[in-house]
Amino acid sequence: MKEFEDDFVLIKKIIAGDVDLFAQIVDRYKSHVASIVTGRVPFDDVEEVCHNIFLRTFKSLSNYTVKTHFSHWLSRIAVRGCCDFWRAKKRRHEIPVSTLNDEQQDFIDVVGSESSKERFEHSRELDDSRELLKECMKALSPEDRMLIELVYWEGWKLKDVAESFGWGVPKTKVRSMRAKQKLRKLIEKMIEDEG
Q1: Whole domain around residue 67: which residue ranges?
Q2: The domain that contains 66 carries what CATH number?
Q3: Average pLDDT, the chain
Q4: In the chain, what is the greatest distance between 2 CA atoms, to the nearest angstrom?
């Protein structure tokens, strides 16, 4: 609770004109923001996205109220910043490069230990699957993409995801199930079209 009060006092001083104190907010929460951004945007863009999130946070400080912890409020801005990044990428028609999670990396390690023929076949299947998934994820809205990543790939609790998006838990649950259904339909259609 002390940190909660310290944040509010610090924010009041920043809003009152002592803008140099914002550096303390950045120092205090840079690893928190980086943990949200890392893995959701390409590695080369993490620093820029984090920077933009803190800029948005600074501009929005006057909107912060004591109703929630500052870290939760900042998490919402960070999640939206990741969504904005992908919206901008989509407008520029750039294909996002997905990063491998632990399960995918483990799969690659297993494949690497098999015979060369099996390794080649599995590698090709993995490439095909990864390309299929990338194309299908690209067709989703940034919010749906983030929901799938947070809920189904990273196992976040619905309550935490809801707080990050600024939604209620029921809305988050429904939106995440619909996003999963959309992804499933896109994958089925792609497989059907290729078959």
Answers
A1: 2-91
A2: 1.10.1740.10
A3: 80
A4: 67
